[in-house]
Amino acid sequence: xxxxxxxxxxxxxxxxxxxxxxxxxxxxxxxxxxxxxxxxxxxxxxxxxxxxxxxxxxxxxxxxxxxxxxxxxxxxxxxxxxxxxxxxxxxxxxxxxxxxxxxxxxxxxxxxxxxxxxxxxxxxxxxxxxxxxxxxxxxxxxxxxxxxxxxxxxxxxxxxxxxxxxxxxxxxxxxxxxxxxxxxxxxxxxxxxxxxxxxxxxxxxxxxxxxxxxxxxxxxxxxxxxxxxxxxxxxxxxxxxxxxxxxxxxxxxxx
Length: 255
Fold this sequence. Notes:
Layout: H1 10-13, H2 33-45, E1 56-59, E2 64-65, E3 74-75, E4 79-83, E5 98-99, H3 100-103, E6 109-114, H4 119-122, H5 136-143, E7 148-153, E8 158-165, E9 168-171, E10 178-181, E11 186-195, E12 198-206, H6 216-247
Parallel strand pairs: 2-5, 6-7
Antiparallel strand pairs: 1-4, 2-3, 4-6, 7-8, 8-9, 10-11, 11-12
């Protein structure tokens, strides 16, 4: 590659999401049902009021390419969110992967769903082999400098929150299993309830009134219930009016 003057930017000379692989059939650890449903619930309830919807991107199990010096290195977070950038790649395409040197905006929060095989790496308890790419913890903390890192233990139903402080993650002391993020005007917490017909603790977002952000299905049920209540109120009002007219000797025209 010839040197140009002025030098070209990494976005112009390094691979894009179209050039890098988006999946590896030989990669172990295919997601189970929980790893499919839990990110979906996070997606459905992640609605930060501080950003318009077209500047919010969320993804799960998507290749996250993070180092322009090693453009083939990537991690696959269980779930992450980017705010302040385009929801679509270059405002037109659905993403095959997330390539930070092309996007220009790093994730704001990443969530890992703890599994026995990845627990130590997720918690930053593994030492890096210098001949191998960095661990998830190193990538999130030192390379991408993601402000918030959350870990949810699906077996113990425990939530851990780490906040970037002075270049290093510091664990937040939670007095209850929920945490407010002021930059998003949203909180993340453990909710006991039924989602996709499964009753158990789930991780989901809540709003400034401490109410859980509703999923589209919950909003639809709420609207249907409000419509039924409105119809019942109208029916009862009509029945009272008919009764009053008949008590006065007037037979109402019900046609």
